Amino acid sequence: MTDPIVCITNVKKIYGKKEVVKNISLSINQGEIFALLGHNGAGKSTLIKMLTGLIQKSSGQISINGIDVAPFQKNAKQQFSYLPEIMALYPHLTAKETLHFFAELQNIPEKNEDEVLEIVGLSDYKNQKVGDFSKGMTQRIGFAIALLPKSPLLILDEPTSGLDPFWAIQFKKVIKHLNEEGTTIVFASHILSEVEDLADRVGIMSDGELVALGNIQDLKRNAKDEVKIKVSFKGIQDVAELTNKLSYPIEVQKDSYILSCTYDEKLEALKALQSFENIKDIEIKEVTLEDIYHEILTKRYAMNA
């Protein structure tokens, strides 16, 4: 197992009498894509802002590569790049001037500026003022700024916010490519499909608490919902024969049969179905991250009712 690049230990954030992040502990390993998932107001962005040193934690410890994170801590800030959910830029600067401004602050070679403009598809707009950019273009220039230093850790808060479907897909391709080259990615999102597509591990937050943590396969394995295998046959299939050969609950649905099993039993069930030569079609509905998220929050809300 690789060493953790991020360590968060017993971290809290309190505003007045309201505790918005409640005693969270987790570590993020080098080279992984880690997602914080949660509803609006869950505490994702607050945790991200403490991780980047934008706001001070009320208690606990956060470190990146063994360096304690705190506001104005320069050594810690050199360990990562950050894309906030809302990017504040100088509206009268062009895209090229904006990148050059941030590059000079960090002593980054000028060649990096053209590289990142190309990555985010803004090379043809480099001489246009960013104040005239759409929300999606502003998000793309923000991503370009985060890519400038080629940091080993990239922290993204709602990275596809404001993007059209094409650029949301392109962003995900860039994130995967960076990760393949060794970059650790931490991102916050409320988009379930985005998290399921990208993340190696997920931390689910609700009301300031970390209510689930693990890789997606383990979360599916532990889910209450079952895998459903829908089978249709050529001609009439004897239900008694199905029941005798398959040791799983079977539901008859019009001209199909729905077999229920756990995530770990899925391959065994499919193998058992191979003994039937008259199968016309098989459709598998696995447990999704949406199912898991709904199950966890439904259980949580029931406990707090």
From TrEMBL:
Belongs to the ABC transporter superfamily. InterPro entries: AAA+_ATPase (IPR003593), ABC_transporter-like_ATP-bd (IPR003439), P-loop_NTPase (IPR027417). GO terms for molecular function: ATP binding; ATP hydrolysis activity. Residues 6-232 form the ABC transporter domain. Coiled coil: none annotated. Keywords: ATP-binding, Nucleotide-binding, Transport. This is Copper ABC transporter ATPase. It comes from Schinkia azotoformans LMG 9581. SMART domains: AAA (SM00382). It comes from the Bacteria.
